[in-house]
């Protein structure tokens, strides 16, 4: 079969291709080639400014030509590199040869062509390229997607700040809250998780075959190669310099980044399951769309598929990202190649995460609050007022308040009349008694509304 959306093995390149399109130019084979070209060119330009007598500073025209190869890098360019790789059987060397081919028509560049990939091992190019790929994916795709969810949930927290809702702990009725406060809890967790993703420093190295600048110093023994590499990495590429590595950058920062994304996804799995449950209880309805079908046999159904899809895709993302974070920091001696094939799946792990964010946001946009169902649920749970009643009894020194309420309410059906009858018989100050008599499950929400509005 020809490769198409219908024949793709991965649904990320088939059924869901449009949902993850933003990651495709960044984390694909094309994206890796693009960044390799960028790194090779920035290293080459920096070498021309290093003060070596054999390599004078490049003219502005030459610099513009070189950087134009990066800004105008196309699928045709990537394919040309791929064609060279058929001969070299080495992907990074293919990039070097492709660049040198571009130099053929420019005398200034052609005479200094051997400074392309000068003193570099392939991993000097690869690790910096991966850092640039992840930088763009985090900045341009992942964080904006998380921010959209945070913004939507913040809006819901404010909109529903004062709408009372019965809580359930261990699946049993518990002290009431508000819908907005429960959403605000998720917002607070997500904001912390988002900051952990953003805070990870993306590390890179350019120090040769085993991290000691061996080849660099053999050519220019008096040059400060460590300072030079740091300038290229931090000033020209915008990454963070790692001075101590083997042949590969050890990928600890990648593990930290993928773990941070995984933690964010786990929070959203928790929330997806909660919303699924609230829809099942009738607390939320879902907006319907003309022509959509919920079941092939039950016409009434409007299934919470967006939240189910989100949960499933977050699970896939976390499985892949967890493997990446656990495998990548491990390398035999000064390096083995197991990281290389695994790293090619960064886009798959983050792609499933992005698919989860998209599904969740679509689900949130369909939600409609069913205040009647929330009210009915609260009105059938007068037993939750046992907590405030026994707490006020404690304040005024009445005997065995907890034990009295336990005996009165535990396992017993409770109504407004029964609870108010119990309150009426208490030896409490009249003002306190009236305050308890006026309380309902819907008004016993503590500081929930204020907390929701503050988020």
Automatic annotation (TrEMBL):
It catalyses: (2S)-2-[5-amino-1-(5-phospho-beta-D-ribosyl)imidazole-4-carboxamido]succinate = 5-amino-1-(5-phospho-beta-D-ribosyl)imidazole-4-carboxamide + fumarate; N(6)-(1,2-dicarboxyethyl)-AMP = fumarate + AMP. PANTHER family: ADENYLOSUCCINATE LYASE (PTHR43411). It comes from the Bacteria. GO terms for biological process: 'de novo' AMP biosynthetic process; 'de novo' IMP biosynthetic process. Keywords: Lyase, Purine biosynthesis. Pathway: Purine metabolism; IMP biosynthesis via de novo pathway; 5-amino-1-(5-phospho-D-ribosyl)imidazole-4-carboxamide from 5-amino-1-(5-phospho-D-ribosyl)imidazole-4-carboxylate: step 2/2; Purine metabolism; AMP biosynthesis via de novo pathway; AMP from IMP: step 2/2. GO terms for molecular function: (S)-2-(5-amino-1-(5-phospho-D-ribosyl)imidazole-4-carboxamido) succinate lyase (fumarate-forming) activity; N6-(1,2-dicarboxyethyl)AMP AMP-lyase (fumarate-forming) activity. NCBIfam families: PRK09285.1, purB. Its EC number is 4.3.2.2. Catalyzes two reactions in de novo purine nucleotide biosynthesis. Catalyzes the breakdown of 5-aminoimidazole- (N-succinylocarboxamide) ribotide (SAICAR or 2-[5-amino-1-(5-phospho-beta-D-ribosyl)imidazole-4-carboxamido]succinate) to 5-aminoimidazole-4-carboxamide ribotide (AICAR or 5-amino-1-(5-phospho-beta-D-ribosyl)imidazole-4-carboxamide) and fumarate, and of adenylosuccinate (ADS or N(6)-(1,2-dicarboxyethyl)-AMP) to adenosine monophosphate (AMP) and fumarate. Pfam families: ASL_C, Lyase_1. SUPFAM superfamilies: L-aspartase-like. Belongs to the lyase 1 family. Adenylosuccinate lyase subfamily. CDD domains: PurB. It comes from Piscinibacter gummiphilus. This is Adenylosuccinate lyase.
């Amino acid at each position: 079969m020809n490769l198409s959306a219908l024949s793709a093995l991965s649904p990320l390149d088939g059924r869901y291709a449009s949902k993850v399109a933003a990651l495709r130019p960044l984390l694909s084979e094309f994206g890796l080639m693009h960044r390799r070209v960028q790194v090779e060119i920035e290293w080459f330009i920096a070498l021309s400014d290093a003060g070596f007598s054999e390599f004078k500073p490049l003219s502005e025209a030459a610099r513009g030509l070189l950087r134009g190869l990066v800004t105008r890098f196309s699928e045709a360019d990537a394919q040309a590199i791929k064609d060279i790789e058929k001969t070299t059987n080495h992907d990074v060397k293919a990039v070097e040869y492709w660049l040198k081919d571009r130099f053929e028509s420019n005398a200034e560049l052609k005479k200094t062509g051997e400074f392309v990939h000068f003193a570099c091992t392939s991993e000097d190019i690869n690790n910096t390229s991966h850092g640039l790929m992840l930088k763009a994916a985090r900045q341009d795709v992942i964080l904006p997607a998380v921010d959209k969810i945070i913004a939507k949930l913040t809006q819901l927290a404010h909109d529903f700040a004062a709408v009372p809702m019965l809580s359930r702990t261990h699946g049993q009725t518990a002290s009431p809250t508000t819908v907005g406060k429960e959403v605000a809890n998720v917002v607070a967790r997500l904001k912390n998780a988002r900051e952990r993703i953003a805070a990870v420093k993306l590390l890179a190295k350019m120090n040769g075959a085993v991290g000691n600048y061996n080849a660099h110093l053999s050519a220019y023994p008096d040059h400060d190669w460590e300072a030079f590499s740091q300038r290229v990495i931090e000033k020209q590429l915008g990454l963070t310099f790692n001075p101590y590595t083997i042949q590969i950058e050890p990928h600890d920062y990648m593990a930290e980044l993928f773990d941070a994304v995984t933690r964010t996804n786990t929070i959203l799995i928790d929330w997806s399951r909660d919303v699924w449950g609230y829809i099942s209880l009738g607390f939320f309805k879902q907006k319907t769309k003309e022509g959509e079908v919920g079941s092939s046999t039950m016409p009434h159904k409007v299934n919470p598929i967006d939240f189910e899809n989100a949960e499933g895709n977050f699970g896939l993302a976390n499985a892949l990202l967890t493997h990446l974070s656990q495998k990548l920091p491990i390398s035999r001696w000064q390096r083995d190649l197991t990281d290389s094939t695994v790293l090619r799946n960064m886009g798959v792990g983050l792609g499933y995460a992005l698919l989860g964010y998209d599904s969740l946001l679509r689900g949130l946009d369909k939600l409609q609050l069913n205040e009647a169902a929330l009210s009915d649920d609260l009105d059938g749970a007068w037993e939750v007022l046992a907590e405030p009643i026994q707490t006020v009894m404690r304040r005024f020194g009445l005997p065995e308040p907890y034990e009295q309420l336990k005996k009165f309410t535990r396992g017993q059906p409770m109504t407004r009349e029964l609870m108010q009858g119990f309150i009426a018989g208490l030896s409490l100050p009249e003002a306190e008694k009236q305050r308890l008599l006026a309380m309902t499950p819907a008004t016993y929400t503590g500081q929930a509304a204020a907390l929701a509005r503050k988020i």
